[in-house]
Automatic annotation (TrEMBL):
The lineage of its organism: Bacteria, Pseudomonadati, Pseudomonadota, Gammaproteobacteria, Thiotrichales. PANTHER family: MEMBRANE TRANSPORTER PROTEIN HI_0806-RELATED. Keywords: Cell membrane, Membrane, Transmembrane, Transmembrane helix. Coiled coil: none annotated. The chain crosses the membrane at residues 12-45, 57-79, 91-110, 117-136, 148-174, 186-207, 219-244. It comes from Leucothrix arctica. Belongs to the 4-toluene sulfonate uptake permease (TSUP) (TC 2.A.102) family. This is Probable membrane transporter protein. GO terms for cellular component: plasma membrane. It is a multi-pass membrane protein. It is found in: Cell membrane; Membrane.
Amino acid sequence: MLNELLSAWPILIALMVTGVFAGILAGLLGVGGGIVIVPVLYFLLQFFDVSPTSAIEIAVATSLAIIVPTAISSIRAHYFKGNVDLPILKWWSGFILVFAVIGSLLITYVNGESLTLMFGVIAVCVSLNLLFRASAPSLFSELPSKLWQGVMASLTGLLSVMIGIGGGTLGVPLLTSFNVKTHRAVGTAAAFGLVIALPAVITLLLVGQAPTDAPFGNFGLVNVPAFLAMVPLTVMFAPVGARIGATLDQAQLKRVFAVALLITGSRMLYQVASL
């Protein structure tokens, strides 16, 4: 028993460190922390003899559960700084919610390797776009029609849920491409994260089943010990990230976001290639 507890300490420390970084990134970039949480859980779970296919499913579901309280903390910090665009949030939320539920249902049917590949491809594409265009002007002068905004919101909800991330990974580059200021895009995307994660987690808890090789503490597809280890730290450090973000200019924010995405996305693609 003592040996088992001692062997678990490195895992606990890794989860806690991940919680700190995920919280800071959630506040800094409006991403909900999933771009850190998903790959870390994906690799840690495999130390417990969980298959890569099961690991990505558990990592995605657990990440979405962690995003809920993290996003609430991040939203509060950004709202008080005036960085949440309420008209955009109101229009996009309905589309995001519906397609978040659809995406969470698809998770139970899509192959785990496909989810891993999807995460890597989306992360790398978005990161390269932001990295090479960090100081470039917006592609468009204003947001498109309400119809096209609905399409963008639907894709943001669907794809974000399926790879276990908040609204920032897709929401921030989309909004900034249409001349929404980066700080405002980050704050609004933080709110997207809550609209994405909350219905998705409820759906997964109702319909998701724990894989046969799931580790100790799984409730459906959500790993409760990982959730409990990380949530206090993500919630605590999300406002810290928001304060840091307020001191950086838009080009710096985009570069930080791009580097974080590029590292995590590349690592996931490497894992798929080695399977």
